Amino acid sequence: MRLIREDRAAAYHVVGLVDDDRLKRHLVIDGCRVLGTGQALAEHARGTGATAVILAIPSAGAELVRRVSDAAEAADLKFLTLPPLREMISRPVRLGDVRDLDIADLLGRRQVDTDVARIADHLSGRRVLITGAGGSIGSELARQVHRFGPASLILLDRDESGLHGVQLSIYGHALLDTPDVVLCDIRDEQALREVFEKHRPEVVFHAAALKHLPMLEQYPDEGWKTNVLGTRNVLQMATEQGVERFVNISTDKAADARSVLGATKRVAERLTSWYAEHHAGTYVSVRFGNVLGSRGSVLHTFREQIARGGPVTVTDPEVTRYFMTIPEACELVVQAAAIGHDGEVLVLDMGEPVKIVDVARRMIAQSGKDVEIVFTGMRPGEKLHEDLFSQAEHRTRSRHPAISVVAVPSLDPAHLPGTRGALAVLRLAPELVEERHARVSLSA
What we know:
Layout: H1 2-6, E1 17-18, E2 28-29, E3 32-36, H2 41-48, E4 52-55, H3 62-74, E5 78-81, E6 99-100, H4 103-107, H5 116-123, E7 127-131, H6 136-146, E8 152-157, H7 160-171, E9 181-183, H8 189-199, E10 203-206, H9 213-218, H10 220-240, E11 245-251, H11 260-278, E12 282-288, E13 290-292, H12 298-307, E14 312-314, E15 320-321, E16 323-325, H13 326-339, E17 344-348, E18 354-355, H14 356-367, E19 373-375, E20 396-397, E21 403-407, H15 419-428, H16 437-440
Parallel strand pairs: 1-3, 4-5, 7-8, 7-10, 8-9, 10-11, 11-12, 12-17, 13-16, 14-19
Antiparallel strand pairs: 2-3, 5-6, 15-18, 17-21, 20-21
C-alpha cells in the first residue's frame, strides 16, 4: 500500500483491504479499512468499485492462490499476485513484484521448511561438483548451493550453451574461461576421471541425465549409456576421490518402472545403493516427479501451442501428474542431501496429482483465446497415473515432513550387461530392474 501511495506512476489505487483474520475487521492502514474476509470478495469489490485484486501474501500456498484466483475470476476482477517468498527473501518487496498469475502459482507453490544450519554444515567451505549443471535442475541446484558459500563450485555439463546460461545466472558474466566450468560427457570415463582428480570434489550432486520418455523409447541405447553407464562412471570417480556425500537425482518414473527412462533411473538408484554399501561416504538418491518450468515440460509445450492458436495436445483426459516448481524441488534436494543416510532413496512430497487436461483448460482460459484440446492417446512406456513408490517399497518418514525414505536393493556394477543385452531386458521385461535383475541379466 505504501509503495502504491508513494509511486505517482503506479497503475493501482487501493480502495480497501480484505483479510481472513476476523480480529483485523476494523483495522485501518493508510486510510484504508479492512472490509471483511475473502469469502465476501465479490461483495467488497462491488461496494468499492474495485476492478482488480492483489493477493499480497508471498507465503501463500497453491490452494490459497487457487481459491482467491477463482473468486476473482467469478467476480470479473483482474487477479494479481506477489511471487513466492523465496524469490524475495534477500530484498524488500518492490512494486514491480506485483504480477499476473502464473500457472506455477496454482500447481506447485508451497513453502519448504529447510534446515539452513544443517545444509550449511555440508556445503559451506566444501568443494562441490554438479553434473548436468546446465540443465533445469542442475542450474537451480548450482544457484542454491552457491548461496551457501562452497570453497569451489564445479559446473559440469556436455552442453556448452547450458554452462553459459548457468554461469551468467550465478556470476553475472559468462566468459566460460575459468576451470570451474567444465565441458565433459559423463559417458567418457577417462575425461571424467581427469576432472575428479583435478578438482577433488567433496560433495557431488549428480543431475546429468536423459529425461524425455518418448525419445528414450525410440533410442534406448542412449538412455542406457547416459543414465546407467554414465551414472556408474560418476559413482566410480566419486569413490576413487573419496567424496564425502553423493546425491543421485532420480525420478518418480523409477517406481514400478514401465519405460526405458524409468528402468534406467531405477538401475541408477540401485547402483547408488551398492556404492553406499561398499565404499566410505554417504550415497543417496532423491526421487521426485515433474518440475514446472523445466525445458521441454508440459507448460512450455502448452504455452507454445496456445500462442500458435492450438490445438493443445493431451494424451488422455484422465492422465494425472505430480508437479513441483524447480526451486522447491531443489530446496528439498539440498535438504535431503543433508539428512539422508547411506543408501537411502529419499522421496519428495509432491502434493496431490493434477489432471493434465485441467492444466490445459486453465492455461487456455488465462490466454483468453479459443483453443481446442485434442487427445492423442498414451504413448509407449507412459502411465496414466505416476507413482512415487513402487508396490514393494515400504516408506518411512524422514526427519523432514516433506521427505519420505525407502530402501532399494543394491546392484553390483560388475553385473551390468553390455548395452544391447541390457536393453533387451529393459524393454521386454522392465520389472527385471528390481532385485531379480542381478540374477537374470547375464543370461539375458
